[in-house]
Design a protein that fits this description.
Length: 495
């Protein structure tokens, strides 16, 4: 009877609520390695799970070490062809990738929410972010300018130019599985995205190995870190694992781009617009169930307005709808995994043991999924737990006396990603964004800590790793700098 059951399952395909996945190339069972234009996988079989009910969405056969070696060899050879294309031509390919994503925006956004757990508007918004990034890259492809530098030697000139670095290895986390592609627990969005990119490459008669992807775990990540064919490794994840990746890559003199932990503070001064601040804190602390690296985790409130701000925030938390991320009106979806829910419970116990007072929330919600209550904790800024990143919807509220103390508290943690201040004082704003203000890579004024714009460089300092991605000059991470000093024989300079 077993073969009959398996055949029946194959014939039936997805349950009705998952039928849309066929529109983006996802099947009940998928190969998880795109190797030299062929989908394969000879590693472990894993299930992609819906965190709202912990039921399997689809299965994926992960990449093995052999799949990795075959794939990276083809990718390395294909990179030589890609690098020879003029930058505007590469930009044209990226433009087509953005257009391909546009045609599947709703499907991809829905899959992202289904697999990761963030609410549907966030899922669609994340895919749109990738589309916007493609547009940004298209413009950048015509602006990778070098310069002519004056030489101190007669009849010489110096040319500064930028060349492609080569293969870039990307090891990512689950919370932005489309914008930062490739996390182990969100393989389906990786597969769907890869198929769209591969179609564009094929249409342009380019090697599909230019975009090689592996669904896999730590074994694949370690292989990328050690591989001398990969001059730059980009890692998104915890500070602990990021430090290990950096050490491994540095041992072979490779480059590392790290986007690690955040422990972000939002300061509310006594002259702030309280209503604006409260709405911003709610969005920053509860969005993505507190699973953004830019989530607001510490709320610093001036002692004169402390009670007022906390009361208004508690009232706002009562209105948060927790539930299925695909349903209209849901503001807080599930945590991504059962392990995340368990870490939330452990974290609450530690918070209480260090004197934290739970003002609201603090419990898991009994259900099939990984739902927890949005939580506000009153605690001392000197508590050890405040220095750590609890990846969930837990907000610490802390009281301060003046701006100087607020900055000291903001800067007192090991991480340094995002920060924000709410004030009407121009003097304080300029102090906040200056060298005596926030020590974070992202410094906001009168807006939340979470989110970022693609036109500006994204990244943080200290335990956040120092990496920069997206706009500004961050593209220089993935470009090889070269300076030429040719003797200008046969060239006449002046009369």
């Amino acid at each position: 009877m077993v073969p009959v059951v398996l055949l029946l399952r194959a014939y039936m395909g997805f349950a009705k609520e998952y039928e849309f996945l066929t529109e983006i190339g996802i099947e009940p069972r998928n190969s998880g390695a795109f190797v030299n234009g062929v989908w394969k996988g000879s590693g472990s079989v894993v299930s992609s799970v819906n965190p709202a009910n912990n039921k399997t969405i689809a299965e994926v056969v992960e990449a093995s070490s052999q799949d990795y070696e075959e794939g990276i060899k083809a990718c390395y050879e294909a990179s030589k062809i890609w690098m020879q294309l003029p930058a505007p031509k590469r930009g044209e390919i990226v433009r087509q990738i953005g257009d391909a994503l546009r045609t599947k925006l709703q499907y991809l956004g829905r899959l992202l929410s289904l697999e990761m757990g963030k609410i549907l508007p966030e899922g669609i918004g994340e895919v749109q972010e990738v589309i916007d990034m493609c547009d940004f890259a298209v413009g950048l492809s015509r602006q990778l300018n070098g310069s002519v530098v004056p030489s101190e030697r007669p009849n010489h000139m110096m040319l500064e130019m930028w060349n492609p670095l080569g293969v870039v290895g990307v090891i990512t986390a689950f919370n932005f599985p489309c914008a930062v592609l490739g996390a182990p627990t969100t393989p389906l969005i990786t597969i769907a995205m890869t198929k769209l990119v591969a179609e564009v490459l094929e249409k342009n008669s380019l090697p599909t190995a230019i975009f090689t992807s592996f669904c896999g775990g730590a074994e694949i990540g370690q292989a990328i870190s050690k591989d001398t064919r990969i001059p730059l490794v980009s890692f998104t994840g915890s500070s602990k694992v990021g430090q290990m990746v950096q050490q491994t890559v540095s041992e072979r003199f490779g480059k590392c781009l790290l986007e690690l932990s955040g422990n972000n503070a939002l300061i509310v001064m006594d002259d702030a617009d309280i209503q604006l601040a409260v709405r911003s804190v709610l969005f920053a602390a509860v969005g993505t169930a507190g699973q953004r690296c830019t989530t607001c985790r510490r709320l610093l409130v001036h002692e004169k307005i402390y009670d007022s701000v906390v009361d208004k925030l508690l009232e706002a938390y009562k209105q948060v709808k927790v539930g299925d991320p695909l349903e209209n009106g849901t503001l807080l979806g599930p945590l991504h995994t059962k392990a995340s829910r368990e870490n939330f419970e452990k974290g609450i116990k530690v918070i209480k043991s260090q004197g934290g007072k739970i003002l609201t929330g603090g419990s898991v919600i009994e259900s099939e999924g990984n739902f927890v209550q949005p939580t506000i904790v009153e605690i001392s800024p000197s508590a050890d737990v405040v220095k750590e990143e609890l990846f969930g919807p837990v907000l610490y509220v802390l009281k301060f006396k003046d701006f100087k103390e607020a900055v000291e508290i903001n800067n007192s943690v090991p991480q340094g990603l995002s920060s924000s201040i709410f004030t009407r004082s121009h003097e304080l704003i300029f102090k906040w964004i200056g060298p005596q203000g926030s020590d974070c890579g992202i410094v906001n004024v009168n807006i939340p800590t979470n989110g970022a714009e693609i036109g500006g460089a994204f990244g943080g300092e200290k335990g956040t790793g120092g990496g920069r991605e997206a706009g500004s000059d961050s593209w220089k991470h993935t470009i090889n700098y070269g300076s030429e000093l040719p003797l200008a024989q046969g060239i006449s300079f002046g009369n």
